[in-house]
Write a structure and sequence with these properties.
- By secondary structure, this protein is mostly helical.
- The protein has one domain.
- The protein has four helices and no strands.
- Helix 1 crosses helix 2.
- It is globular and about 35 Å long.
- The protein starts with 16 loop residues before the first helix and ends with a helix.
Length: 84
């Protein structure tokens, strides 16, 4: 089933539904990440040394470029938190 959103998107690292859906359909993942790059951001509430976060490696290795990568990796969070 293709992934899509109507409103906001939240990836929960404990359940990993977003990561699993993206990794399952790479063609659609590229379209999805580009289409919603202004509404997605990466975040975590707790990170321990050595903790594996598959979504981080996925996003880094997926090959997002330019504004899409900037938005998802930090610019959306900066804008949301009024840090930019």
């Amino acid at each position: 089933m293709p992934i899509d959103v109507e409103a906001e998107v939240l990836w929960n690292r404990r359940l990993s539904p977003g990561y699993n859906a993206l990794a399952r359909d790479l063609d659609h993942a590229g379209e999805f990440l580009h289409r919603y790059s202004e509404r997605l951001l990466f975040g975590t509430d707790l990170l321990t040394r050595g903790q594996e976060l598959p979504i981080v490696a996925f996003l880094r290795d997926f090959g997002l470029e330019g504004e899409d990568w900037e938005n998802i990796s930090h610019a959306n969070a900066e804008r949301l938190l009024n840090l930019a």
